Amino acid sequence: MKADINRIKNHSRYNKFAFFESPVWFEEYFKDKDYFIVQLYDIRPISEHIPDPIGFVGKFKWKSNKLTSLDGDFYTEHMPIYGYHEFEHDGQTCISVLTDEW
């Protein structure tokens, strides 16, 4: 199921996020930037009956253009990003990203 990006933009959970006019590829847009933690949020609906986004799905580190899983799951740096929010954690730069493919 496809996400309704307008519904996501209006969702209170994502009110601090910056959104792109069209999706960008993670590894291209964030090239040469380092993030202590990258948190992934899947914006697809939970089900056809529950339109809320799936939400948090995992995290990894992004350093020197290399992805390292922080939770043992597999992720790809070639994923479409619809929006993001940078934040600090323990003095380190982190980011949350919105995707529908990870």
Keywords summarizing the entry:
102 residues, mainly beta, six-stranded mixed beta sheet, 2 helices
Helix/strand class: mainly beta
- Terminal CA distance: 15 Å
Hey, roughly how much beta strand do the residues contain? Answer: over 45%
Mean pLDDT: 94
The Rg value, from CA coordinates, equals 13 Å
**DSSP helix fraction:** under 10%
Number of self-contained structural domains: 1
Report the uncertain regions.
Answer: none
Report on the biggest sheet.
6 strands, mixed
Could you give the order of the helices and strands? HEHEEEEE
Q: What strand line-up does the widest sheet have? A: 1-5-6-2-3-4
Question: Rough shape?
Answer: globular
Number of contiguous helices: 2
Total beta strands: 6
